[in-house]
Specification:
The protein contains twelve helices and eight strands. By secondary structure, the chain is of the alpha/beta class.
Length: 327
């Protein structure tokens, strides 16, 4: 193989390995959450964010010097019994494919050798071109959205800046201390419902959920070929549940919060098109599920993690810094 071809094979490896690494991390995180019975919602949110963050860390974990193709070795032509799977710990959990002489290869290598070279190049060009376009479009849309001049009125509430706009359909928490309300929905809320929504959005501000949503917004564009919607929905649903629980811990009425959710869901259902600011910062979810969840929610005091919390943290660090199926 010519050296000039290595770029295309490595890029193809990167595409395949990102997908495999993401889902491996998702599965491992869910195993840890289940095995240790992690109930803390904010802890679960942090854990489920790890596979997304890992996508940006993985490129720095590649060890090109171990790549079999870099040494001119074809992993499929090494003979039976010379290829093996390794699982262990070294600065994190390690999972990978190796040859007997210590060099590594990936499932991407195996797949690439079964495809015509022109297909490998085409896939690489298509994937990175679409990623660049999607990322640029989202950056442009985000900048334009931030500059868009909504017709707003504003007032202060408990140290927060509350803005009322015709440009959104559901309440949004925007850092550092702004809550954006849709005009139509605000007019339909009782005082108790309004207080419940403010408390809910205040929880989003407290835990910087807007930054998490923004991170996911751009990450899912960069790595568009990875089907992330299931993992993303679990994470965002957990954020909404945590914000609901935080509001109820302040003594807000379950009924008021549930009615507010139902009212905004009805308004949102009537409007098919969502603005970027809503889709980027607000979880839509299923209204009935949210209402039932709020009605059945138990408000419990948090507890200290202790030894269990320390072990869970170590496992999550091992996942975040681990190498899964990469070179």
């Amino acid at each position: 193989m010519e050296r000039s071809d290595l770029f295309w094979f490595f890029s193809f490896d990167f595409i395949i390995n990102c997908l495999l690494s993401f889902f491996t991390a998702v599965i491992l995180v869910e195993i840890v959450l289940f095995a240790f019975r992690v109930k803390n919602l904010r802890g679960r949110i942090f854990a489920r964010l790890l596979p997304f963050a890992k996508l940006l860390i993985d490129p720095f974990l590649y060890d090109y010097s171990r790549w079999s193709l870099f040494h001119g070795l074809h992993p499929l032509f090494t003979g039976e019994g010379n290829r093996f799977l390794t699982i262990g710990f070294s600065n994190g959990l390690q999972m990978g494919l190796f040859l007997k002489n210590g060099v590594s290869f990936s499932l991407g290598d195996v797949l690439a050798f079964h495809l015509p070279f022109v297909v490998v190049k085409g896939v690489v060009i298509a994937v990175f071109t679409i990623s660049s376009i999607l990322f640029a479009v989202r950056v442009r849309s985000f900048v334009q959205e931030r500059r868009f001049k909504y017709k707003m009125t504003q007032f202060e509430r408990n140290g927060l800046e509350v803005m009322v706009s015709e440009g959104v359909d559901v309440p949004c928490a925007i850092l550092p201390r702004t809550i954006l309300f849709p005009k139509e929905g605000l007019e339909k809320l009782s005082d108790d419902e309004f207080a419940a929504v403010v408390a809910h959005e205040k929880e989003h501000l407290r835990f910087k959920d807007s930054w998490t949503r923004l991170f996911l917004y751009f990450t899912t564009a960069l790595f568009w070929w990875i089907p992330m919607w299931g993992a993303q929905k679990r994470l965002e649903d957990a954020q909404e549940k945590a914000a609901d629980l935080g509001a109820l811990r302040l003594g807000l009425s379950k009924l008021a919060l549930a009615l507010a959710v139902a009212k905004f869901a009805k308004i949102q259902h009537a409007k098919q098109k969502q603005r970027l600011l809503v889709s980027a910062f607000c979880s839509r979810g299923t209204a009935l599920h949210r209402v039932n969840q709020i009605a059945n929610m138990k408000v419990l005091k948090g507890n200290k993690g202790g030894v269990k919390g320390g072990l869970v943290t170590l496992f999550f660090a091992a996942i975040l810094l681990g190498s899964f199926w990469i070179l």
